[in-house]
């Protein structure tokens, strides 16, 4: 059976009503919480860190997927795992010693993912695909929510799927950026397993219904 998971992005949640939004996701058909961490250096924006993740963990009843858009992520992965991350994804472009960082994440008890920016070739995954639990393909340039989906992502999904099959990898494919109710089914059909949706969910007047539409 096809895996179809929805991971609402907490970057788009209402931080004045964070517990309310967490409880909405708990009740919904969503599968994961997606937590974007930005440092203002790797990407031109700053988001939350350990205290917010700790709050999410306190109330969340589902899997927590942490996406580190930061330089030198290896310095911080252990603390993010300690604060509640079930999966930590790091950027290929940010890791000088990617294999070491992926191994470290797993040694600390979390699942490990690798992220590719839109302009990074899927071919760069060849030497790491067997070691990761997830490949996150950015379908916008990272740093800000609400951006337009990059259509070349469909080709990259196909290429990633071929690489996973070639090396008999167990990695899931996650898509982040510009996901909405119009393209969700197409992304799943192309081979995606997990869709991150921020603006589409939290700007909706009926977010739980939007999550259901994204998934089914």
Automatic annotation (TrEMBL):
Pathway of action: Carbohydrate degradation
Record field: catalytic activity: D-ribulose 5-phosphate = D-xylulose 5-phosphate
Cofactor(s) demanded: Co(2+); Zn(2+); Mn(2+); Fe(2+)
Pfam families named among the record's database cross-references: Ribul_P_3_epim
HAMAP family, A to Z: RPE
Gene3D superfamilies to which the protein is assigned, alphabetical: Aldolase class I (3.20.20.70)
EC number assigned by the record: 5.1.3.1
Annotated binding of a divalent metal cation, by residue: 34, 36, 67, 176
Keyword Ribosomal protein in record: no
UniProt keyword terms in alphabetical order: Carbohydrate metabolism, Cobalt, Isomerase, Manganese, Metal-binding, Zinc
Protein name as catalogued: Ribulose-phosphate 3-epimerase
Protein family membership: Belongs to the ribulose-phosphate 3-epimerase family.
Taxonomic source organism: Riemerella columbipharyngis
GO cellular component: cytoplasm
Its biological purpose: Catalyzes the reversible epimerization of D-ribulose 5-phosphate to D-xylulose 5-phosphate.
InterPro entries from the UniProt entry: Aldolase_TIM, Ribul_P_3_epim, Ribul_P_3_epim-like, RibuloseP-bd_barrel
Gene for this chain: rpe
Any one of the GO BP annotations: pentose catabolic process
Cofactor note: Binds 1 divalent metal cation per subunit.
């Amino acid at each position: 059976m096809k895996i179809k998971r929805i991971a609402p992005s907490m970057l788009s949640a209402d931080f004045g009503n964070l517990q309310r939004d967490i409880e909405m996701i708990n009740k919904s058909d969503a599968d994961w919480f997606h937590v974007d961490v930005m440092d203002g250096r790797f990407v031109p924006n700053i988001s939350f860190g350990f205290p917010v993740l700790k709050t999410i963990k306190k109330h969340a009843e589902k899997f927590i997927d942490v996406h580190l858009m930061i330089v030198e992520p290896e310095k911080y992965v252990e603390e993010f795992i300690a604060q509640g991350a079930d999966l930590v994804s790091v950027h290929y472009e940010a890791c000088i010693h990617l294999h070491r960082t992926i191994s470290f994440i797993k040694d600390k008890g979390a699942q490990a993912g690798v992220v590719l920016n839109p302009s990074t070739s899927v071919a760069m995954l060849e030497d790491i695909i067997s070691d990761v639990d997830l490949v996150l393909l950015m379908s916008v340039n990272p740093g800000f929510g609400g951006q337009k989906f990059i259509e070349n992502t469909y080709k990259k999904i196909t290429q990633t799927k071929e690489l996973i099959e070639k090396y008999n990898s167990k990695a899931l494919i996650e898509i982040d950026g510009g996901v909405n109710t119009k393209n969700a089914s197409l992304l799943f059909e192309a081979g995606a397993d997990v869709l991150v949706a921020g603006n589409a969910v939290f700007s909706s007047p009926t977010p739980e219904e939007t999550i259901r539409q994204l998934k089914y």
